[in-house]
Structure formats: structure tokens, C-alpha cells
Amino acid sequence: MSHNPEQIRSFIAIELPEEAKEGLARLRKELDRDEHKFVKWVDPGGIHLTLKFLGNIPSKRITEITEAIKEAAQGISPFHLEISGLGAFPSLRQARVLWVGIGGEVDELSRLQQNIDSALAALGFAKEERSFVPHLTLARIRQGASPPERRSFGELVGSTIFEDKYHVEVEAINLMRSQLTPAGAIYTCLSAVGLGH
Predict the structure, then answer these.
(1) Among 48, 80, 167, 197, which one carries the catalytic annotation?
(2) Is residue 79 part of a domain?
(3) Which of 16, 25, 103, 145 could form an S-S bond across to 20 if both were Cys, CB 3.0 to 4.6 Å?
């Protein structure tokens, strides 16, 4: 299959402040154990609050997608979120994904996400099937991990106190590019849309 250079793997997300990324890096250090080889950590510097994953898009569609995001953001003023709490999907005993929770003005966040979903549905992007659960993915547990391994990791997570609260002032939404390289994903911002215009 010939690789089309015009295809860009992209998603729509909210950028996190440096302080929050540093806090997540500290949390990772605390949870990263040698015996848990089956845990695949997300680089804390690359953690975003993803609102919608678009997959591969032709680069010539960046402009119309940005316009759709602008439309979705109209009438939504900047709002405040906080990062707090720790958990796993689907549960701590059967951990597949380790996440950090999002609190604060989550109603505004959901409204923004629904607006984006609708605006992009009009451009032919499938609507999200699952209801939006705002979270940040910190790690994924490899598929080959055994039930006891998942449980032992879940117990570690369950016994970890994460009471730091990091504040996120949401003033813009970014259309991001994700380039997958052997060293990990490289993220670049393709366009940014400010809120409250």
C-alpha cells in the first residue's frame, strides 16, 4: 500500500499546563515499578485532554476542520477544569487503562465536546458511540498481562494517594497532529481556536 504523505493522523484536544504535566510525571514515577513490565506508560509531556480523535485526514481538510471547531466553540467562554483523582477502566481489579480524572466545569467541557462532535459529523466524521468521560490516559496495560498482574497493578493504584489538584484554564482548543515514531508519538499543533469570541 503506497503511503500517502498528505494524510495526517490528527485529533482535537485541550493542552495541559506545564505544571500539570510535571505533576503527572511525578505520579508516573511513583507508580512505575520494575515488576510491572506489562504497563505501557504514556509520555507525560504528550498527555492531552482529547475531545475527538479524527484518525487520518487529508492535509487539505485542515482549514474546514478548523472552521468547524470555531463554529463549535462559539458561545462557549473560557472555563476552568481541575485534574484530580486516579482510577482504571474497566475496574482496578481488571485494569486495562490507568486514568486521571477531570473535575471543575465539566458541564461546559461536555457541551464543547458535543458541539465539536456535531460540527464534525456534518463533515462526515462518525459521531462518538460511547458517552464522553473526561479523563487523561496515563498508561495502558498490555493485552498479554495476566489477571494477577492486572490485580497487583490495580492494588498499587488503589493504594496510591493522588490528592494534588492541577488547574486548567481552558482558553483554546487545538487541532493536533500525532506522528508515530519508534521513539514514541510526536505532537504538533496544526491550528488553535480560542474560546469566547
Answers:
(1) 48
(2) yes
(3) 16
